Amino acid sequence: xxxxxxxxxxxxxxxxxxxxxxxxxxxxxxxxxxxxxxxxxxxxxxxxxxxxxxxxxxxxxxxxxxxxxxxxxxxxxxxxxxxxxxxxxxxxxxxxxxxxxxxxxxxxxxxxxxxxxxxxxxxxxxxxxxxxxxxxxxxxxxxxxxxxxxxxxxxxxxxxxxxxxxxxxxxxxxxxxxxxxxxxxxxxxxxxxxxxxxxxxxxxxxxxxxxxxxxxxxxxxxxxxxxxxxxxxxxxxxxxxxxxxxxxxxxxxxxxxxxxxxxxxxxxxxxxxxxxxxxxxxxxxxxxxxxxxxxxxxxxxxxxxxxxxxxxxxxxxxxxxxxxxxxxxxxxxxxxxxxxxxxxxxxxxxxxxxxxxxxxxxxxxxxxxxxxxxxxxxxxxxxxxxxxxxxxxxxxxxxxxxxxxxxxxxxxxxxxxxxxxxxxxxxxxxxxxxxxxxxxxxxxxxxxxxxxxxxxxxxxxxxx
Length: 464
Description:
Distance between the termini: 110 Å
Structural class: mainly alpha
Shape: globular
Number of helices: 21
Oligomer: single chain
């Protein structure tokens, strides 16, 4: 027989039983308020949709988590939520313009870079397919943060409860951890689902989200391309072709530099694992908070206030990530500009792409507040200018060969001071590299050398 102390005090057992009863009633379905808790308000406070179907789905997931708690987070909730949201809002766009653009984009890229084609063919995919093929990458980025939050909150709960309750927490800990993990997984699913409605290409966020056989050749989302073109006073075919060139350049780079994807994802994961939730900060925020003020709670969740300020180590890691993202995006920008020199309106299209990458959409901001990480290339313009300078001084082969190893790439200091990179590469005094004229230029030169046809005898008043 166990002693009374080992079993927990009657008061402690009664309190924990009451907490369990409230959770069971709240998650029992039906949507009725429980002890002043409105399910819709609860969903809103968690930063989730208050649509009746979404609320019912949320509480069904939470009910399942409470009844069958496990050690880890059930990420299938993320997949289901993301697919449901991706399937909402509008019909799929015609993939034909995207498929027509890819062959031309590939030919133009062959002239602008030595980085060759991928073995996988580029594809047109739907929003749902984008979710299905990218969600595992998003989960991998978010999982370390979710585990850190769950672990820290459980530790905080154990330390703050009275002694008579803390002894009884062990029995409820798996259930509470499972419910909290399900809330996080649902939030991530909403973010990924909404992202599918914002992106136009697989490489829009700067990292290769789609992996596996047949998926590494680049992909455009026709509905996303159409939505992007609507905001521009440019021909939709030209916009589609520009985005196709950019997406293929991104896909080629990651296929060529085989170390790059793992390097990026490892750096992001290491950064995320370094996040430590500041329980004192949470207690300070909660001290004067009215639990019924769901709007204030939602603001705290959506603002990322629960994620603590970056440590010096994380600041340094984040700076390295930003530098790498800027180098990737800058190279893609420079190569795309060279490849689309014949395309009308490229400057306006390129500027819109840069603005989107610099600011991000609502769903991308939601991911940064949820995980505490922004995927922003803050030195994008400087990096693009550096890659163009390298091509001018050393040629495209010398520029592209720097992707052979991470140690060869320009540093953050060299992005800000290009002369230092030129000196390191022995290009400080080099003249701009001569470029071979393409077939169009050669034919134009021949025409100009031959001169205009003899117009003797023509009526000078006749318009030409």
